[in-house]
Here is the input.
Amino acid sequence: MIFTKIGKAGTEETARIAIQTAKERGIRHIVIASSTGYTAQYFKNCGVQVTVVTLAYGSRKLGQNVMDETVRQQLKDDGFAVCTAAHALSAGERSISTDAGGMYPLELIAHTLYMLSQGAKVCVECAAMALDGGHIPYGEDIVAVGGTGHGADTAVVLRPGYSKTILKSSIKDVLCLPDKSVLREEA
Here is the structure.
C-alpha cells in the first residue's frame, strides 16, 4: 500500500494492515511508535501483543516525558506494554553533531532509512528500543509501525537487532508507506 498523504491520514489503514499481516503470518508482536497514545487506540484488543514505544525523559523538555503520565497508565491498563527509551538511531550522537557539527554513523543509518520513509526509520529504531528493553523476544520477526509527524503511515515486517547490533536488523517486508513525491511536496 502506498499512501498519498503522510501521518494521521493513514493511521487506521496502517493499523488494519499491520494487525492483519501479524495474524496471517503468525507474528506474535507488534511495536508501534507513539508519544501521545493516538496511534495505540487503533490496536486496542487486536489479539496480538502490542508494545508502545515512546521517547526517553528529557528528549524534548528536560525532566519531562512527551507522553502524559495519565496516557501512559491508561495504555498499561488497556493491556499495552509501554517502552520508554532513548532513540536508538540518534540519542548521544545527536548531541555531538548539534554541538560540534557533522554527521555520525547512527545518523547516517537514520538518513538512509529515510530514503524509504521517515516511518521506516522509526520502525527500525523503535523495534531496537523495544528489543533493548526486553519487551519483544530476540530472534523473532515482528510488525513495526511508525509514521511521519503524527499518526502512522508506515508498517514493516522485520527482525530487529539490539541497538548495539542495529546493522543486524532485517526488514523482511514493507507493508505500507507514503509516496516519496508526496513527502517532497509537503516538506
